[in-house]
């Protein structure tokens, strides 16, 4: 059986809806943002947005509206989901929680879901809500005074606190619409009866606008005040215009038209598809329009005051407005459109206040803009209305002047990963943690997004100084609040840097030995500074400063390592090996306290640290606690623990390995004391440390040491040994403090930060390259900063307080569709589409390296430039710098559908070729499916890409994979196996050969996805779900093994193991099927058994095996196998296969939380996660919702305790299990 844990590592970022109103406060303006399955509220503050809440919704939000019925102090939120559920939400200012006013079901037993999606509109007078959910039907939800018992949906009574509201939803009813294909609809402003305008397409594919009045008493529709036939064929949006103007704006692809029945005005505009709009003025005089190319425009209505109505407009088929619509205060006489600049392609636009605009996008980053104001008296006169800003309007109404200068400033950019069309997981350091590189965005907003989980460094300053061997921060005395000096050790010298403001400059410290390599430097008690070099110890007084005392090592016995804490200095000498304890004081200087011989040279040493954070113990040593020193030796694979000040051995803890410790550290994390050992092979071994208790009456002086001063060593000092691999190079351990919390920095080829929860140590990698050493450097200019030494120099920066996904954007300004990575050439192959809008846009469109093309593609590209269409490229990108180093331009009409880095093997010669294989299709609009394509073999040599072989295909190559040195391709309704035939060497690239079709297999609708494992081929079909096949190289045949007989429209597939396969389908569901190898009949063996189903709520485009984090498991526990998925809305998620025992626990926890933690709007978790499409609905099986389970850690403690009682598990144990799961992402 397959048990799976699904969790979001990166929440959705694509903005689907955005509204502005007063939802959370009567005195503040809110921006409400919906990201498919999450709802966010922000408060508008000056030039920024302050988050208020971010909550999950158990449904995919289809429509979202703000409204304020009579008597309500705040706006209410009305939303519907794709499963035809609705809810009305309010915000409780006192509790700070979202309250459900009403909810219910809007679905119908019969009816075809609306082809153009759901539409919900609310009457401006808040008398009713109209919804277009099904073709031919309009659902009406009347709004009336609240009564106890309250609202009702169409098929279920509403729940919540509707009785406390001043208004409530009444029983819904349906009215029949003769217009089947409704494009858009809106309510008209004014009039005694609510009226709607409908934009629809008739049977002749002409678009028209018709108005209706809604008769609530009769539950019917009546003819409206006007009708307009044959509006622009590209019309897609109706914008209701408030009074005093009234009427609607009909927005098309080439024009905008104003129509009110009495007035008809149109203005042409550059051809574009308007996606979103926003009202600037309350009276609707100015509007913002955003199109699919990201062009932001200002639409202005010109009008003159009057009693309004004359004869009907030219072309209008209805007479003048009826009595209920007469008396408009102004007549629109003209429209004007002005280009403001280019933004991300918008899915939602909100005008916030005083020129502040929010651009929400599904295809690019969302933005916060500030419109530039026009000064002077004219501007002041123009900026009428609340929060309006005067905008300079230029150009004539006859056309659209395009100004190259933006008329706004971008204040903030909110990254959006969606849509993630494809991605790859690259483990550059081979540490088990993947770097995810996504093809994100679309069209001009396309980019590569590079994501890595870890702790980031915000760099403030850097110095190029190669060869740093050690770094320490110093203060001018114990009373100084900040660090002021940095000591840098090199191979044969030491430098001191002083911080002057925010600049580092070299300084001299009296008594400091600058001509020797420093082994250790630290602040001590009594305002002293110690410098330890190979030849001795210098004690410097901060008063002055001046040299206070020195201690020289015996001739021929250099100091190899040292440690210091408080007044104690421990030195490790060589030839013969010896450990010496010195004590420093302002009065006596340096005093030798004790010494002991060592059996081998010391490799590391550490003094027990103060017990910071120990319950009931102030900072400093605990009462009666003996201090110790830990020593690691070069040949002994153990750690010795010696008592201070006697240096008597208390314990020797075996490290159970063949690698010596290179760094030791005593540290207290989360009220628990640890001894950490940084090993030479990149591992960190941790022990829980129980400090020995000093016997009563023991003296601390060296001469008083004896039986009375011996520590009680009956109990073990070190216990709970755990080993974690961090890198491959020796680890250097340094403690530091961030936001009041103690952490440990592990310097190595894989820098890592160790922290602790109440339950265990946590490891988070740092997004840096190899870091040799580090020192805390909390200066006045850079509080809580770190000084980090790398192989190229020194950098100073602040570290993030939490581990998170760090996203880097690589702008392409092209639409990336497919990506693959090759480890050998250290490059990515990225298939992109560049839109050429006109001749000017086409100039230079190719970018870097476009000369590397095959088959006369340069001429084809020129033809496309002239036609103003699209050019398809294969870009070669360096995997370190992410620079485009080479490009291949495809033929005219040719589009790349697949790319993989494969190792091709010739069956005859055995020669192996590593290359990118690209699958393409020639797209002809007159063909239902492509009938021709190519397989391209691209070899990479010295950063250049060469076409070494190609094969023609009889259809589109939708997918590729490797099978034992062969290429498996999904070509239209077939899967085909190609073999590499090695040829003679060519001058370009040094390789030559050809792909030969060895075997084909029919029987599919469209073979969109193929994956191979061993001899098995898994096929994901457009309509026929998944099927399993076996390829026989000896016989050259492809044999059908089994298939899933459910009709799933597959979006992505993955092979979990040899017998279990994962699929994602077009209704946002996941399913797992398994080979039925133990079946007794052929019929059962030929069927893939469905063993798990789950509604993810996200449309998955790709699965990839890999992990976002290093799974640092304790003991011998095996890491959980994981794979990642990317979705249309920008979600990066993790799917882990978990053992049955853990699944049983999490299943019980999930069920309990679903009952005790209600969903927003009364939406049920069990309904949300049930497998649902237009063919069946079934409860989720063998999947755990990790987002719900991990939200347990965010609940209030009383609710946590209740859940723990129900699952019969201790709070600490349950938190520990969930904490382990969070480390998956």
TrEMBL record:
- What Gene Ontology terms describe what this protein does at the molecular function level? nucleic acid binding
Predominant location: nucleus
Does the record carry Cell division as a key word? no
Q: Which Pfam families match?
A: Beta-prop_RSE1_1st, Beta-prop_RSE1_2nd, CPSF_A
**Keyword entries, A-Z:** Nucleus
Q: Where is the RSE1/DDB1/CPSF1 first beta-propeller domain?
A: 14-384
**RSE1/DDB1/CPSF1 C-terminal domain location, by residue?**
873-1193
Every RSE1/DDB1/CPSF1 second beta-propeller domain range: 458-798
GO cellular component terms, alphabetically, are:
nucleus
Q: Does the keyword Lipoprotein apply?
A: no
Q: Where located?
A: Nucleus
Q: Which family does it belong to?
A: Belongs to the DDB1 family.
Checking PANTHER family in the record gives:
DNA REPAIR/RNA PROCESSING CPSF FAMILY
> What is the name of the protein in this document?
DNA damage-binding protein 1
